[in-house]
Amino acid sequence: MQAVKEKERKPGVSETVLREGKYLTFVLCGEEYGIEILKVREIIGIMNITPVPQTPGYMKGVINLRGKVIPVVDLRLKFGFQEVEHTKETCIIVVEVMNKLTGILVDTVSEVLDVRGQDLEPAPHLGDGINTEIFLGMAKIKNKVKILLDIDKILGTEEINMVESLMSIG
């Protein structure tokens, strides 16, 4: 697989680092998002998720994946979107962040895209109080915009600490 390369920043461009490379795209609320393919460990269909008490609402619980207990975060809820019933297309993308595996629940997986530097733009300024650090940039492909996410920032320190706590329970 091609490694994700950082694109040189131009003066005046947002502090967001633009990265070209391969991205796994998925859908949430009808919009397409992408995460670096190198962060993805596997994609699995929806399975039984065991709720864990005293965790935030977006932390759906844990799954047992071949003997490993993996926490699952519902990205819809994490982003403040409305929760919906799972469909046959709902799936869990298992990602590795800071050497920890975490599942992210998405509406459906689309494809693996090869994003070139000329297809990338920094995330626009969305106003004060809106955290744009979670965006790697915007990819313009086939007249559509795909929002590239920084999964390390989305599943930041708070979630990793929660994952470590959940792992120490067993």
From TrEMBL:
It holds the Pfam family CheW. Keywords: Chemotaxis, Cytoplasm. SUPFAM superfamilies: CheW-like (SSF50341). It comes from the Bacteria. InterPro entries: CheW (IPR039315), CheW-like_dom_sf (IPR036061), CheW-lke_dom (IPR002545). Gene3D superfamilies: CheA-289, Domain 4, SH3 Domains. Signal peptide: none annotated. This is Chemotaxis protein CheW. It comes from Candidatus Brocadia fulgida. The lineage of its organism: Bacteria, Pseudomonadati, Planctomycetota, Candidatus Brocadiia, Candidatus Brocadiales. The gene is cheW.
